[in-house]
Amino acid sequence: MIDTAEGYGRGNSEIQLGKTLKELGVDRKKLVIVTKTHNRDPKTWRERLQASLQRMQIDYVDLYYMHGLGDAGDSDPGVHNSEAVREAVADLKNRGMMKHFGFSSHCGSPDFMHDLCAKAAEGGHVEVCMLKYNFRDYQNEKFSADLDVLTKAGIGVVAMKTQGGASAAPDRVKPFISEDFNQYQAAVRWALADQRISTVCSAMRNVDQVKENAAAAKSPMMSRSELQSLYMYALATHGDFCQLCDECTKVCPAHVAIPSIMRYQMYAENYAMPEVGFEHYLALESTQRANACVGGTCDLCEAACPYDVRIRSRLKRAREVFA
Ligand code: SF4
Ligand code: SF4
């Protein structure tokens, strides 16, 4: 499965994918190709998907996602379920431009995610969803119940952000890693061991990382001691990783897009993809960026954060990274 989006590299990701497939002479039918649109107006999708297909030099995608539901500005968890979406999905399928429809969401707000999943399960036309899910969710009973609802409705679940920010503190990871698998493999295996997860979407930047993931996928079941190590690591580092739960934005008087900024900072620093982080950050309204934080004695966001994330110092760092 190859996952891209019209927005990645402003279309360049799709262009490079198309060129690579042509150069390698890969049999298109053997691939599952996924792309996404962030656009919320289904009337534009035919034109947008056509442009994506042209960039990738293919006739259809296997899966088309409505991208990033719950991102800054989204408030309706039923947005994937409107009559306009149904019509657009039927139209694009009839034209042979896509095989399956779904959505992706980075959102960690338990209530929003619950409603998103419930409406997907009752809607009948969402076939796959890609959601943030990693070993830090091991006690997240509410989300686990949401996964049950999706699975019962026959909706495939793709796990993303499976690393849980694991690379943010490599020194702190060492004591928790088993001899057979490194920390990245342990995180992938944890997600794949869950029978409700169809597959994981994992950024791989070189052949070594592809081999690592392939080895992890062949042996997803983890021993009790490996699981214990991973959970101890999750506990020891939980304040390093933003769970995107949105609690801080509810109280921020300046309406800073804190979880989005954390995510873009993670792309730039932990995933070593500064261009991706920078591009997303620039797409935020200037009033949502880290500079909008009023600073001073305000600490409302940190007081509201259930995961003890040091938000103010992370925002300070974001200002430096994205200056
Ligand atoms: S410290 Fe900044 S980001 Fe946090 S609540 Fe206050 S204004 Fe918002
Ligand atoms: S910083 Fe804390 S409160 Fe804000 S989204 Fe992340 S985990 Fe939630």
- Count of spatially separate domains: 2
Total DSSP E strands: 7
The coarse silhouette is globular
Q: Strand portion, in percent?
A: 5-15%
Instruction: Tell me about the largest β-sheet.
Output: 7 strands, parallel
Listed once per kind, the bound small molecules are: iron/sulfur cluster
Number of helices: 14
Radius of gyration: 20 Å
Mean pLDDT, as a whole number?
90
CATH architectural arrangement of the largest domain: Alpha-Beta Barrel
Instruction: Give the termini distance in whole angstroms.
Output: 35 Å
Low-confidence stretches: none
Could you give me the name of the CATH homologous superfamily of the largest domain? NADP-dependent oxidoreductase domain
Q: Look at the structure and give the CATH class of the largest domain.
A: Alpha Beta
Kindly identify the CATH topology of the largest domain.
TIM Barrel
Pattern of helices and strands: EHEHEHEHEHEHHEHHHHHHH
Helix/strand/pairing class, anyone? Answer: alpha/beta
